[in-house]
Amino acid sequence: MDLITRLATRRTAVLVVEVPGWAATRWAVEREVRDRGWRPALSPADADVLVVCGRPGARLATAVDHVWTQLPGPRARAALTEPASAAGALDAALTQLTDRDAQRRDAVDRPDEPSPGTGAAERVEGEPTPSEPQDDEPPAFDDPGPAQEDDGDSDAGEPGDMDHGDMDHGGMDHGGMDHGGMDHGGMYDHGDMDMDMPMPGGIMLAGAGGNDQLPDPDGLDLDVLHLPLGPVLPSWPAGLLLHTTLQGDLVVAAVPEVLPADGAPPSAQDVRRSPAGRWDAVATLLALAGWDDAATRAARLRDAALDGELHQGDADRLARRIRRSRLLRASLRGLGELPDGDAHDRLLHWLDGAAAERTTTLGDVAELVTGLDLAAARLVVASLDLDTAHRTPAPAEATS
Asked: Which portions of the chain have biased composition (kind: Acidic residues) (predicted)?
């Protein structure tokens, strides 16, 4: 490998897709990515490598194929089903990435425009439902979320000196997170749109007037936009596809469903209720909140727990640091309120080592995100720590 190639691959960006039931494999890949000095990709356009953890079912595989068309070249793809295969899968991906002949062939063979994908769902009374496929309506499957780049293990000093000075909340104000970094270019859901409307760059425009118009609490005439979130989305439950209807940046209706794996996942990967699973949930929520340093430390504690080497002192120090954060508390308070508390309460339960039974249904998800903006909705979903592998309730009707 020449010098230019080595420099180009030092910070390889990896987009990881978790199939429901393969959390342990995702954890192994994320750990290997971090140990190599690579970084997690925040969107298909940001990614060099696409890694699929598990065996996706037909619809989830279609979604993954659609996301693959959105990766720019040079690009590589890998798939694995066991945590022990993480290093080998990334080695193979790096070999693909640096194979100039293979990359030239890929560039010649790929279409000029990414495929809009295949339909994931029909609509209920004009809205998407998860129950009936529709071939002529192609919603997309990815949304990268807030743009962040985690450079890893930056030290913010002792917890006593910190009320999250190192926390990057540039676009965040209790769910008012800036979505300027959210690349929706791969989202296509045109079933209710006037197809005479111009589609710049293939990006859908909001519908105007007629049945597309919904009453606004402020009396404003805002158009609506149908936007799928997931199932390929960083810091997002595996296989979850949330069909949302937006008015401005607010979710006014939501229809969730889970795109399952191809068969039952291995029982050995049922680790989400373990200490490692709780620290993974903490890391996911902190990453979405913009606190990258604390999220990285939580992920390291997750990996230490998997190895049986979790030091309680390290866990207690990070937990105290998180509890003392006034900004994080203000950002999560009042979001996703359930009988057991809100998003911040659930975070504290994880830090206390509580392993409560997950009773949240997909219907609860639809109700909790309705009325929130996209950033707040993503925080709520992360705070629920949904186990999509072992709970497949009937999809909820659209909530408005």
From this structure: 148-160
Q: In this structure, what token pair is assigned to residue 1?
A: 């490998």
List of residues 6+ apart from 251 with CB closer than 8 A: 244, 245, 369, 370, 371, 372, 373, 374, 377
The share of the chain scoring above pLDDT 90, in percent, equals: 58
Q: Rounded to two decimals, what is the model's pTM?
A: 0.75
> Tens of pLDDT along 65-79?
999 999 999 999 999
Rounded to whole angstroms, the Cα distance separating 351 from 298 reads 10
Whole-angstrom Cα distance, residue 390 to residue 399? 24
User: With b meaning 16 or more CB within 10 Å and e meaning fewer, what string describes 79-101?
Assistant: bbbbbebbbebbebbbebbbeee
The string of DSSP letters for 155-193 reads ----GGG-SSTT---TT-SSS----TT---TT----TTS
- Does the structure show a pLDDT above 90 at 235? yes
Query: What single-letter DSSP state applies at residue 338?
Result: B
* Distance between CA atoms of residues 285 and 236, nearest Å: 10
pLDDT tens figures, 335-387: 999 998 999 999 999 999 875 566 788 889 999 999 999 999 999 999 999 98
Q: Which whole-number Å values give the CA distances from 124 to 200, 216, 243, in the listed order? A: 28, 21, 11
Please choose, from the candidates 215, 213, 211, 240, the residue with its C-alpha nearest in 3D space to the C-alpha of residue 228.
240
| Residue 205: CB atoms within 10 Å | 14
Q: Say which CATH class 3-109 falls into.
A: alpha beta
Task: Look at strands 39-40 and 13-18 and give their pairing.
Answer: parallel
Domain boundaries, the chain: 3-109, 224-384
Q: Tokens 């194979």 label which residue?
A: 99
pLDDT at 5: 77
Structure tokens at 391: 């709970």
